[in-house]
Each structure stands twice: as C-alpha cells, then as structure tokens.
Amino acid sequence: MQVYGIDLSKEKFDANFIDEKGKERRREVKNKVVSISKFLSTLPEGAILCAEHTGVYGDLLVYLSNQEQVPIALVPGYTIKHSLGLVKGKSDPIDSRRIREYGERFTDKLVFTEYDSELVAELKQSYTAREQLVKSRKALLTSESGRRYLPLESIAVHTHLQRVLASLDAEIAGLEKVMEELIESDQELYENYELVTSIIGYGPIIATDLIVKTGNFKLIPTAKKASSFAGVCPFPNASGEMKAKSRTSPFADKKLKSLLHMGARSAVTHNKAYNLYYQRKSLEGKHHYVIMNNIANKMLRTVY
Questions:
Q1: Does residue 43 contact residue 4 with C-beta atoms inside 8 Å?
Q2: Among 277, 266, 272, 295, which Cα is nearest to 201's?
C-alpha cells in the first residue's frame, strides 16, 4: 500500500510519496481534468490518496478518483496539524509530505470520501446559492432600516433598493422551488424530508439543511455524530480534581446549530411535551440556553 499526500490549491496540487526504492518523490499536478486523469492512471495498484480538506478545490480530484476507483480521504487541516507535534516552516512540498506522513501513521483511521450524486450536488449548490442571496437581502434590509434615521433620505436610492430587494425575494423563492422539485424527484430524499418536517418545529429549511449537511444521513449516520457535528451535545470538562461544567465544542457547524435552536424555540411554543420540559428545567434552575440546547439535541435524536 502506497500513500500519496496531496496538498490542494486552486490551480494545482502537490503530491508527495515514497517510490519502490524507498526514496521520497514529489509531483506537481494541475487541478484540471486531463492532468488529474493522467496522474491517476499512473498510480500503482493499492495506492491511497490522503488530502487536506480545502473545500471546492478538491471536488474534481475526489470525483475523478471515485471514477477511477482510487481511494481518497479528505482530512481537516486542524487534525493533520495537531497530529504531528511541533512543526516549523510551511510550503506546498512540505505540507504534502506532512499529509503523507499523517496518512501513513493513521491509515486505519482514514475515512474515504465519495462524491455526491448529481442530484445531491445540485441540491447543495441550490441551497448554498439561496443562503448567499438571503445574506445579501439581510444586509440590504439592515442598511435600508438605518437610512430611515437620516435627516435627508434619497428617494432614488430607496427606489433602487426596493427593486433589488423584490428581485432577491423572487430569486430566493425560485431557488426554494428548485430545491423542492429536486427533493420530490428522489424517493429516498423525499421520504427523509417528509419524516424531518413531520417533527413539530422543523420546517423545509431545517430539513433541507440537515439533508445537505449529513449527505442525506449517510455521511453522518448516527445521532451521536450529528449532535457533535452540530454542536448541541456537551463534552466533559474535567482534569484531576478540577471539574468544570460540560461544554459544547466550538468546532461545530454554527449555521446548523442556529437552525436547530430556532426549531427548538418553535417546538417549545407549539409542542406541549417540550413546553412542559422547558418549564420543569426552568424550575430546577437550569439556564435558558442549556435547556434549549438539550431540546435541540433531543429533537435531532428524534430525527435519527
């Protein structure tokens, strides 16, 4: 088994490996279809690719590796950095060597990545585009509300902004329609979507976010892992005689956590069981955010 350490970037990636003579080698490959395909075709049988997770820069490599049936694992940079102890210096060749060394040391812990199906990939892109438009709309609405307090407000600016906001509303609604049609076109996606939205407090956006972030509950297959990913499960915080309160991890998907807390607030309002739970915990002296985090955790477990 030969491990190739891959340091990804926008235009190219560096590959570091040990050849059959035991010598360290390095290859620089353009991040394009032809170059990657040629690189994959030269790999020996049983080769494993270990790359740092850098977002969309690695999508093409993952997709083509899956096509050629070459195992590839994407590892967070934080994990690699803190597994090697004290390190000095940084460059693409050095980083690729460190990634290779990580892959060789922790081969048994590598989780190989499979690229999303065409349907899920389109759903993810539609959801991301909607998020970007919602963020832009929020920024414009904030500036528009602040402008009302100016002594002299421009009617022309107000008119143009209203047109832009109306256009954003239409595009957001259009993307939501696209996502709805994509989900309805796949039986498994639609069944999971219906199950999630059947829970009081969870609407279409939370259900879609869960499906996208968990890979339709396949990339994150258990409630325990999902709670950790979303940052709604507390971890122990004790050492020796020091015993502090358990805390949630800061390394979580903050967007998903925010949505789950919104769902928890809705559940407390409209679900009698959660409303009684909230009241009981409040009487016990629990802090509001601790109770809401517990409810968010319970609801996520209900999904699974």
A1: yes
A2: 266
CB distance 268 to 295 below 8 Å: yes
> Residues 115-157: pLDDT tens digits?
888 888 899 999 999 999 999 999 999 988 888 888 888 889 8
Nearest to 123 by CA among 202, 216, 222, 199: 216
Instruction: Single out the residue of 229, 225, 193 nearest to residue 211, CA to CA.
Output: 193
**pLDDT tens column, 193-213:** 999 999 999 999 999 999 999
For residue 75, the one-letter residue type is V
Q: What is the pLDDT of residues 163-196, one digit of tens each?
A: 999 999 999 999 999 999 999 999 999 999 999 9
**Measured torsion, CA atoms of residues 155, 156, 162, 165, in degrees rounded to the nearest 10:** -140
Instruction: Tell me the two tokens of residue 282.
Output: 């409040």
Q: Could you give the count of Cα atoms lying within 13 Å of 123 in the half-sphere of its Cβ?
A: 27
Q: Taking the CB of residue 37, how many other CB atoms lie within 10 A of it?
A: 12
Please check whether residue 105 is in contact with residue 8, taking contact to mean a CB–CB distance below 8 angstroms: no
Separation of alpha carbons 101 and 290, rounded Å: 41
Q: Hunting for tokens 């290859």 — which residue is that?
A: 27
| 23 three-class SS | coil
| Residues in contact with 75: Cβ distance below 8 Å, sequence separation at least 6, in sequence order | 50, 51, 52, 53, 99, 102, 103, 110
Sign of CA dihedral 47, 62, 213, 137: positive
Picking from 56, 191, 215, 255, the residue whose alpha carbon sits closest to that of residue 120 is: 215
Instruction: Check if the beta carbon of residue 74 is closer than 8 Å to that of residue 52.
Output: yes
Query: Would you call 47 exposed, middle or buried from its count of C-beta atoms within 10 A (0-12, 13-18, 19+)?
Result: middle
56 pLDDT tier (thresholds 50, 70, 90): confident
CB 286 within 8 A of CB 254: no
